[in-house]
Structure formats: C-alpha cells, structure tokens
Automatic annotation (TrEMBL):
Tree of life domain: Bacteria
Tagged with keyword Transmembrane helix: no
Pfam family name, one: NMT1
Keywords: Signal
Family affiliation: Belongs to the bacterial solute-binding protein SsuA/TauA family.
Name recorded for this polypeptide: Transporter substrate-binding domain-containing protein
Length: 333
C-alpha cells in the first residue's frame, strides 16, 4: 500500500515539475522574444475632416496599417489651432499638416520635426471667390475679404495679392472660419471670400447664376497649398521603423483607393463628414502623391521652390519670427 502511495506521489510530482518547466520555458521565450507575438505599435495621427486624409482612413478601415506592423489611430480636430497644439504638446505622434503650418511652427516654436510624405496639393480645391463686379485681383483693393486667419486661405490670398504688388493691407480683412466665409458670400455680407472645398461648391451652386466666380485658385500657384505628414524628430529616433512603415501604408492605401474608387470614396466621405456624391467635384481639384510621384517632385526642385515661396510670403506678412533651413524639415528623398 505504501509503495502504491509512493508511486502515485512520484507521478504527481513529475507532472507538476513538467508543468513548471514548460511554464518557465514559455515565460523565457516571451521574455527573450522567442515565439511570443510582438505587439503592434499604435500611432496616433492628427487629422481634420478634409479629404486629403483619405488614405489614412482607408488604411484604418481595411487593415492596411497592420499589414505593415503598425496600428493607425486617427484623431480628429475641427480647427487648425487645436490640431497644432496637440501636435506641439505630444498629444499625438504624427500630424497631417499644411506645408505652410509646418514651416511656421518650426520658425515660431522651434520644433524639431521631419516631413516624410507629400500627401497632396490643391489646384481648384482652394479658391478666392468673387462677385461679378470683381474681375481681377487688382479689383480687390479696398474690398472686404472674408477668410480664416493663419490658414491656407490666408496664404492663397497673400500669393494672389503679391503677384499684383499688393499686400493684405490693401484689402479689408474679415476673419472667420472657412465654412463661414463661404456663407458670408451667400448672404451677401462680403463680395469676396477665400475658402476651400466643399464650401466652394456650396457657394457656386447657390450664387453662380448671380455672377459669383473663381477669381484665383491653387492652380495659379502649384504647390502653394499642400499637405504633408509630419512627426517630431525624436519620434523617429525612438521608432526608427515608423518612417518607412507610414510611407508603405500611405502608398498601399492610396493605390487601394485608386483601384477601388467607389468603396474608397464611401470611406473617405464618411471621414470627411460629407456624402460620397460630393466627393468627385472636390477630388477633381486635388492631386495626390505616392512615394514615386513625390520623389519626382523633390528631384525636379518643384517642392523646394514652393516651400521657399511659402516661407517668403510668411516672412513678408510677419507671421514667421525667423527664416528656417527648409532642408532640416523635409525628408522625402
């Protein structure tokens, strides 16, 4: 009887020891990174309800981000100022910013950052709208012009005026958000407004029969109104693989949209807060870039020329405290 009990006890001991051994072995594997699954890194990307962010919404929806080892979490902001503040204070990892905003933040806040993707540039998606009695930029002298201060609308107006030897001091500025600028034209409060799609289309749909027209658009100055993907330099130092992962996600998601236009439009419209029917007219005024197309823009010198011009305009307007070395910002070769 004692021998039988001893045998059973030994058997139980061996099973427990084997279990502990396996548990320790698995724990060691996880500790050493053996067979344990590596966690996917979540990257918070600041965006606004603008169709230019479309490929990132598609990447989230279709799981394209996780194919490249990251999980993109888009964080939506309604105003430029709120998004810029979140980026500056590290509430987000990455931000999809206007090129001029990036340059200005570098100059005024001394932020060390890198722009790694040239997302898009506006052709007819940003515009100065005017009534029929204003047929040239020179006619804006002394007129009320509604636009959002510090945003792309202000930059577009500055460029248009500078080409005629004029400045913002030659017009009566009326500051308001871009959506309201369009509404102020519809109501007749101003004769000129600077805004972007879909508000451009809204104004033209209601006032084109009254002679409201496009006076000046992004197409008149290629590259002036553009968007780029930016992160703090330290973020890329701490996450050396993130740069190529983000680029790969952008390229694949953009191609997916190009290959699956109807489905892609539904996803992007939802993210932008508009209907899919509104999207084609907006997209017709935009040009998106993948890595190969971006490289061509860089090598041709077009990107540098546009960035130099942006900096010049902001220095002249006093919205930048100092000139910056643009080569320290752009990492798009």
């Amino acid at each position: 009887m004692k021998l039988r009990i001893l045998a059973i006890s030994m058997a139980i001991f061996m099973l427990i020891a084997a279990g502990c051994s396996n548990s320790s072995s698995e724990g060691a594997k996880e500790k050493d990174g053996g067979d344990a699954k590596k966690d996917t890194q979540t990257i918070k990307v600041a965006v606004q309800p603008w169709v230019g962010n479309g490929p990132f919404w598609i990447a989230e929806e279709k799981g394209i981000d996780e194919k490249h080892g990251i999980k993109i979490e888009t964080v939506l902001f309604e105003q430029d100022s709120d998004m810029n503040a979140a980026f500056a204070s590290d509430k987000v990892d990455v931000a999809n910013l206007a090129t001029h905003t990036t340059v200005r933040m570098k100059a005024n806040q001394d932020l060390e950052m890198k722009a790694i993707i040239f997302m898009d540039e506006s052709h007819d998606a940003d515009a100065i709208l005017a009534t029929k009695d204003i047929q040239s930029v020179k006619d804006l002298k002394g007129q009320k012009v509604a636009f959002e201060e510090g945003a792309t609308s202000e930059l577009l107006l500055q460029q248009a005026l500078s080409e005629e030897g004029m400045t913002l001091e030659d017009v009566e500025t009326v500051f308001m958000p871009a959506a309201q600028a369009g509404l102020s034209m519809i109501s007749g409060d101003v004769k000129t407004a600077v805004t972007y799609a879909p508000y451009i289309n809204e104004v033209l749909d209601k006032k084109e029969d009254d002679g409201v027209h496009l006076l000046y658009t992004g197409k008149n100055s290629p590259g002036l109104i553009s968007d780029i993907v930016v992160a703090k330099t330290k973020f890329f130092e701490d996450n050396p693989e993130a740069k190529e992962q983000l680029r790969a996600v952008w390229d694949e998601a953009l191609q997916y949209w190009r290959d699956n236009e109807e489905e892609g439009n539904e996803i992007v419209a939802k993210g932008s807060g508009i209907t899919a029917d509104e999207l084609p007219s907006i997209l017709s005024g935009l040009k998106f870039y993948n890595s190969e197309e971006q490289a061509e823009k860089v090598s041709s010198g077009e990107l540098k020329k546009a960035a130099d011009n942006i900096q010049k305009l902001m220095l002249e307007a006093g919205s930048m405290k100092k000139e910056v070395n643009l080569d320290e910002i752009f990492d798009m070769e």
